[in-house]
Design goal:
By secondary structure, the protein is of the alpha/beta class. Helix content is about 30%, strand content about 25%. The chain is built from eleven helices and 21 strands. Strands 1, 2, 3, 4, 5, 6 and 16 form a seven-stranded mixed β-sheet that branches. A hairpin with a 4-residue loop joins β11 and β12. α1 runs parallel beside α4, α1 runs parallel beside α8 and α3 packs across α4. The protein is globular and about 70 Å long.
Length: about 450
């Protein structure tokens, strides 16, 4: 057996890479992990954690509007962007430090630098004059934002990564994109008082989500003051003395202070040296893996967003656990991607688990039963707001299993986590109905929906 420096070398210290490294080191293996940026990866450093802080900060303005309806007065309320950024950065540094400390406690060596593969067992740390060998290698480098580099003026635009560090809050922003990152940042900036425009080339936002959810959220975010332009994209961006002029395909010209592209993320595989190690990519540019996360090289695995299977932090962590069980515990496991709940922290937020109505109609042989309700939340009773909650259950007509739950409204991410347990367990609509409601809550609607939506009115 060859004498390697490590039993396992992990490239990327995000949530997936850190979990795999720690579990393997705790089993007594020699493990190192290389990270070229900061420990914590996309989620902790430049993704869901700082974004959630920004969402919570921006929601305060709406909360103040509601509070006034209940008799409170906040005439002098102001928002300090630099103060918020400082508090956010301190907390992110603390969390990154915890990740790094946990690696050390488990016995993992943390290598600060970019790792490039020289062959299937060898990596070079760029600029550090260090070459490392390992029996097994795990790639967990995540993804990076994509933007159209051939668009004239694209050099003036930012992505979500730069949005976390803007030196000052703009007065006007245009966000290009219709996915969860785009709608989340649109809500953030609008909530902070920025004049916000969202443009998307498709017919509606949140492609891949249930059609009722897409239509409902598009209407609700416009109520929050976000201007939504659909079926349109940029022709060019022009920098002037007063701002950035967005020239759109429909002939519109919009001047803003910032242009942000949230047009997708791609696997971070550039210049990793994968070809020298025999690691192949899919046609979409992700690392090709089997059900157990093994690449086309026998001793190399990949997990998380770099594989472009299901790009969610908790999924990357579960893939890491399955990798460890398979490779080091002689207990082959693979993650089950069915009925994984997800949330969009838009304003209002979205919670989803299971199949959309359209997906269910394609997969359920004898059709589906659909239950939908839309109502004004109790908390808006004194405000005059016409904001509405959407709740939707999709049920397999044969088995009566609830195969999809879709919620748009306050606290929907919290509700969907618990609803996901029922969907994953395969509970039927009758079992949902047999569950006593908690009153008065929004969530009680999930167990009191009785009237089926007729096919003629269905969005699916």
């Amino acid at each position: 057996m060859a004498d390697y420096d490590y039993d396992l070398f992990v490239i990327g210290a995000g949530s997936g890479g850190v979990r795999a490294a720690r579990l393997t080191a705790l089993d007594g293996k020699r493990v190192a992990v290389a990270e070229e940026f900061r420990v914590g990866g996309t989620c902790v450093i430049r993704g869901c954690v700082p974004k959630k802080f920004m969402v919570m900060a921006s929601e305060v303005s709406h909360a103040l509007e509601i509070a006034e309806g209940y008799g409170w007065s906040f005439a002098d309320a102001t928002f300090d962007w630099p103060r918020f950024l400082e508090a956010k950065d301190v907390e992110i540094a603390r969390l990154s430090g915890i990740y790094a400390a946990n690696l050390g406690k488990a016995g993992v060596e943390l290598v600060h630098g970019r790792a490039v593969m020289k062959d299937a067992h060898t990596v070079e740390i760029v600029g550090k004059d260090r070459t490392i060998t390992a029996e097994k290698i795990l790639i967990a480098t995540g993804g990076r934002p994509w933007k159209p580099e051939d668009l004239p003026g694209i050099e003036h635009a930012i992505t979500s990564e730069e949005a976390f560090h803007l030196p000052e809050l703009p007065k006007r922003i245009l966000i290009a994109g219709g996915g969860y990152i785009a709608v989340e940042f649109a809500g953030i900036f609008a909530g902070l008082g920025v004049e916000t425009t969202l443009i998307y080339r498709g017919p509606n936002i949140l492609r891949g989500f249930d059609d009722d959810v897409r239509a409902h959220l598009a209407g609700e975010i416009e109520k929050r003051g976000i201007k939504v332009i659909l079926g349109c994209q940029h022709e060019k961006i022009e920098k002037t003395e007063t701002g950035l002029v967005n020239h759109l395909e429909n002939g519109m010209k919009l001047e803003t202070d910032v242009v942000m592209f949230a047009t997708g993320r791609i696997p971070y595989v550039k210049d990793l040296g994968l070809e020298t190690a025999g690691v192949e990519l899919t046609d979409q540019g992700a690392i090709k893996v089997d059900a157990y996360s093994r690449t086309t090289a026998d001793n190399i695995w990949a997990i998380g967003d770099v594989t472009d299977r299901m790009n969610l932090t908790p999924v990357a962590i579960r893939e890491a656990v399955a990798f460890h069980q398979t490779v080091y515990r002689d207990n082959p496991q693979h993650f089950d991607y069915e009925a994984v709940a997800t949330a969009v922290f838009s304003q209002p937020p979205v919670g989803v688990v299971g199949l959309s109505e359209a997906e269910a109609r394609r997969s359920c042989s004898n059709g589906v039963d659909v239950y939908v309700t839309r109502f004004r939340p109790m908390k808006y009773a004194f405000t005059g707001s016409d904001e509405r909650v959407l709740m939707k259950l999709v049920v397999d007509a044969d088995s009566q299993r609830v195969v999809g739950v879709h919620i748009v409204g306050p606290d929907s991410p919290e509700m969907i986590q618990l609803a996901a347990i029922a969907v994953k367990a395969g509970l039927t609509k009758a079992q949902w109905d047999a569950t006593c409601a908690v009153h008065p809550t929004m969530a009680e609607e999930l167990v009191t929906l009785k009237e089926k939506q007729s096919p003629a009115t269905s969005a699916g």
